[in-house]
Every structure is written in structure tokens, then in C-alpha cells.
Amino acid sequence: MKKLPIKSFSASKVLGGEVSPDPFNLLLPVVRSFSFHHPKEEVKPIEEAWRVAKEKHEGQFRASGEPYISHPLGVAQILADLGSDRQAVMAGLLHDTVEDTTYSLEECRRDFGETASLVEGVTKLSLITKELSNAETIRKLILAMEQDVRVGVVKLADRLYNARTWRFMPPKKAAKKAGETLDIYVPMAEKLGMGMVKTELEELSFKYLDPRIYEKVVEMVGARAGARDKYLKNMMQEVKYALKAYGIKATVTGRLKSYFSIYRKIVLLKKSFDRIYDFVGIRVIVGSTQDCYRVLGIIHEKWLPVPGRFKDYIAMPKSNLYQALHTTILGEDGQEIEIQIRTEEMHKEDEYGVAAHWKYKELEDCRSPEWLGRMANWIKDLQDPSEILPTLKSDLISEEILTFTPKGKSIFLPEGACPLDFAYAVHTEIGNRAVGARINGAPSSLSCRLKPGDSVEIVTSQQDSPGPSAEWLDFVVTPKAKNKIKRFLAKEKNVEIMEAGKSALFSYLLDRKIPFSPQFLAQASRNLGFSNLQQLYCAVGSGKVNPSALLRPGPRKRAGNEVSESEKYSVRVKGVEKGTAIELARCCNPVPGDPIAGVVTNFRGVRVHSVKCPEFIRLSEETPHKIADAQWKGQKGKFKAELEVLALDRHALLADISLAISNACIDLSSSRQSVAANLVSAYFSFNFWDASQLDLVMKSLKQVEGVIEVKRVAGR
Ligand code: MN
């Protein structure tokens, strides 16, 4: 095994970021990088794939205006830099040809053999409806990855290149892509151990998912950067001296943590922004595993370790094979700083993951990670594809713990899993018949949380098993357990509900002497948005839809001067039937004083919008015949409104907000706060006399540091 110099794996190099020095040979950086990692391999087939891809994509362009071929080329370069094998690099060049050009999969297979299977795995399903296409794509991807994990690596390279060009996309679309990337592709990169790809995808997704939060974090980190850098420099110097004194050869580097990891740390650990020292870390890279432990000893001798923060991932690697020692010490002035200690091999493993294995080992040796098999089995078993995304998301995000059967067989489970998850992981029948558990020999409930290293024995009942119950769904966390329990319950319940709904519906129609032909029922269920009658029966049976909904006609806008008044709000709408329901639109929440207008909806009466509301403007352009005049009944008197203030949590935030409110001389009637994901949502109810007072207080609230958004919510 040839060892590569550590320099070539430096994290500072951008994957696939090189531009060819020769304008007539754009493939050059790909070939160079590939040959660096695989010196003995032939490059001819790569050049051939490049020729075909270039020819097929001729005349196509990216949203950025560049020729389309820049994308496959960039993807191939990322793959080459990762150290991927030849087929993967070729698949990078060809990955969009089958989907976007006249080139067929058969032709690809004829020309490039095995590479075609990789291309097929990466190609999207285009036949499925739009709504399901995401779930279906992921489903297909995971199944393809189980066959050949390189499909996932190519897909991740593709996503990384695209993420770098999100700025050419409409912000909403980019945000959607970013959310999906954060939910699915980032954790996937993590599971495959591809640290560099993961970190960059994560940062780009964070930036485009909610630019407001991203910019706040960048702004607040930036304000503290000077002190942070000085601290890091001093600490690195101290560590270097300490190691030198013991004659240990080591590379000591500083790490500025990514904005996303800072954000997540604040979310998870509820830390304040003021603790700037959490934003940096130190990495020590040494030549051998023994040296890792020696370095740890030297550091723990010199500085006080923070209890509970030492992790030995060398003795107990993560499920993605990550290895290192992590510790947090109290450094200068008692400030905490995290130190990671690892060998060069471990470092490379962390950055390149699965991709790096191909260089050193035979392909057959590159087993797909354990979770991939688990996910693939679950997906094959799943009936409702819309469940894929939420479930996959939660499974991917959670850390894994290792547990054991009484016979010592290891079972990986997501953190937070309970004995029932364990039971289903072993076998469906064991889950369905489970009545209790023994953890490390001690009796325990089925719902308690398992810890790493637990040995779990499931107690099953042989005959009169009570079977899965709906409560079980409250505490199981694995997709497999959820799926199996739901399936068991659905079998029992569904028939019952459908029958109940059908008879309720029929007797309702019979009572009113309404003839119900199959055509009438089919039309009615379509009107209500169901794709078949069974769905309608189930919805009625479960109480989600009232039978009367079948007969409800939409309110019609009339030319006359008929007026409907709301009892709940002091609003009057012209030109609609008397008694039509009137609601204030949730998108803009107009308050007295705002110019307003009504929009006649199909089933829900009239929605009253502010005329400045973007949604209203869109509706009035698309369906002008549905717009009705609306006015406030009395312009005088005291009104109530509620404001929502969204801000990043920080010290003294609420005090500053209160100050802003009292400065605006407004009559505060109540307030409440909730904190989620370290974003504070504070709600304030005001009494006010006209809308201009509200504008004033909103303006001063927006100036408070950390405040991201101030908006009106329904006035009650
Ligand atoms: Mn692509």
C-alpha cells in the first residue's frame, strides 16, 4: 500500500475547483487528478466519455449561461479529486446524457459497459407525478446505492456542483433544493464518511435555505472574529510547544467552525452567541495511533478537560468508520476549546470516506455501509412513497448507537431508539409479539431509551399477544418499526373506517332524498380532491370530511349591491350573498385602517386581504372576477393586533425588545414567547387606534440586534 503525502489531502483545496490551463483541453485537470490517484490506470475511456458527453450536450446551456458541458465536467472533477475510480469519473461526465439528451441507456451500455449502470442509478425518474418525484427519486437512489455505493458518490458530486450554482436560481427554488439537501444529501454524505462534501453542502444549504438566518449568523460571528482569531493563534502556539517538549512530531492546525456548525451548536446546546470560543477548534495530526493517545495525555496533563466531552472514536469508531480522539479543554482564561487528534489515515478517511477506499482496496471489499442495507430493506417494504422523505430524514439525521442481542450479534440503531425498535430490527414477528424487554439482564419496559453497548433481550408472548397498539407509534423511532406497526394497525382499522364512512354518507344522502349515482359520487369525490371513492369513504369515516361537504356549493359573486357583514370582524363585503362566511386572510392579516378587498373562494366564503398583500395581487390578476369590494365597518375605536417577532436567541434580547415597544408608546396588552431551533418567536398583543402606530412599532423592533423578522399575525 503506497502512502500518499498528506499535502494532497489538504482540506483547503476545493474539490473540483481547478480550471484547465489549456482552453482546447478542458478535461486536463480531471485526467491529472485521476492519474495522481490511480497512476497505473488507463485514461483513454475517460477521454472517450468526455467526447460523447460533449457531443451530446452540444447547444445546451446552464442557468448561469455557461455551456451545459461545464456541469458534467465539474462533477467529474469533483469525483476525480475525491480519488474515485474510473467508472465513477466517467459516470460523472455522462450522468446527464441519458436524461437530457438523445443518448439512450442502451447506447451508453453498448459504449461504456459497467459505467451505464452508474448513469442509470443517478438518472431521475421522469414518469412519476411531480409531487412524488422527489420521494421516488430518493427511493430509486437508495436502492441503486445498495447495489453500488458509487451511485451515491456520483449523485453527491452532482448535487455539490449544483449547490455551488444555486445563486443562478430563483431564491424560492434554491431554498427548496437547500432544504432537501440538508435533509437527505448532507446526512447521506455523513453516513458515507465524505466529510468535505458534507461540510460544503451543509454550508451552501444553510446559506440558501434561509438567507436571513445565515446573514445574521455571519454578521454576529464577524463582529467577534478578531478576538477569536487571536485566541486561536495563542492556543495553537501553546499546543505546539507542549508537543515539542515531548518530542512528538505533529501538524497542528486551527479550525474555524462552519457557520452551520455554529448555528447547530447554538441550537442543540442552547449556547449564547457571546461565547466566541466555541467557534474554533484545534486539530492535531500525528503519525500513529499510539501518538494520538500520547498527545491526549500531554494535553490533559497541561489543561483541565471538560467532563463528559472526551470521546474515543479510535477504540469505538462511528458507524461511518470515522476515527479520532475528541476532547474539550479549559484553555486560556478558562475558555473551552475542542481538540481533535487523529492520524493521517484517519484524517483522509474523514474527508473522503467511501470514495477513498477504491484506491487501496478491491471493489468487492468496499461493502456498502450497514445503514444502507437497512434503509433499502425498509424502502422495499414501504407502500406509501410519501412517507419516504420524512422518515428517511429522521433516520439520516440521528446518530447511531451500537446494541447487542443476547448472543452478541450487533444491531445499529438510531440514537433515541427503544427496545421495541430493537425488536423490529431483529424480526417483524418479534416486534409484533413483544411484551417486555430485559436490558443487560434487568427487566425493562419496551419504551425506554437504549444506550450504546446495551445488550437487549425481547420478551415475546407466544399465543395471546396483544399485538401492536397505536401508542407504540409514540415511542418507536426507526422507520421499520413505525412502518410495521402502522401496517398491522391499518389492516385492522381501515376496513372498519371505510365501511363506517360509506354507510354514514349513504344514509345522509338517503335522508335528503338525493339520488346518488356512481357518477355523482365520483364527481363529488373529485371535487373534494380525492382520487377515488375509497378515500372519500375513509375521510368521512374518520370524521375528516362531513357528508354535507358533498352538497356545498361555492358562494357566487353577484353583480347586485347585496352586502355581507362579518360578526367576528368589523368588515363588510359588497356583492356577495348575505350570510357568506368572511375571514381575514392569514397571509397578510389586515387590521382596521388598512385598505382591504375580498376574494371569493370556492368553498370557504370570502377571504379579506390587505390590497398590498402579494397573494392578493396575484389573485386579482389571475381571477379578477372573484374580487369583491370590502371595507372596515367603523374606522374609529380601539383595535387589537398581534405582532410576531422572530429573532436569533441571545442575551437580553427580550429586554431590548420591550424597550423598543415602550419607546413607541404603544399599549401592550399581552405577550408570550416560544423558542424553537434557537429562534425566538415572541408575540405581542397591542391595543391601538390606527394602523400608523403599528408601522412605527414594527420599524423600531426591526432595529433590535438579532431580530430577523417582524410581522403581523391575526388580530383577535
Ligand atoms: Mn447533473
Architecture overview:
The protein is 46% helix and 17% strand. The chain is of the alpha+beta class and 716 residues long. The chain folds into five domains: 6-168, Hypothetical protein af1432 (Orthogonal Bundle); 218-361, 2-Layer Sandwich (Beta Polymerase, domain 2); 488-551; 563-632, no CATH class; 636-712, Alpha-Beta Plaits. The strands form five sheets. Strands 1, 2, 3, 4, 5 and 6 form a six-stranded mixed sheet that branches. The protein has a six-stranded mixed sheet with strand order 12-13-17-15-16-14, with helices on one face. The longest helix is centred in the last third of the chain and has 33 residues, at 479-511. It is globular, with a radius of gyration of 31 Å. Mean pLDDT is 81; it is low at 1-12, 126-130 and 359-367. The protein binds manganese (II) ion. Residues 71, 95-96, 158 line the site of manganese (II) ion (MN). Manganese (II) ion binds at residues 71, 95-96, 158.
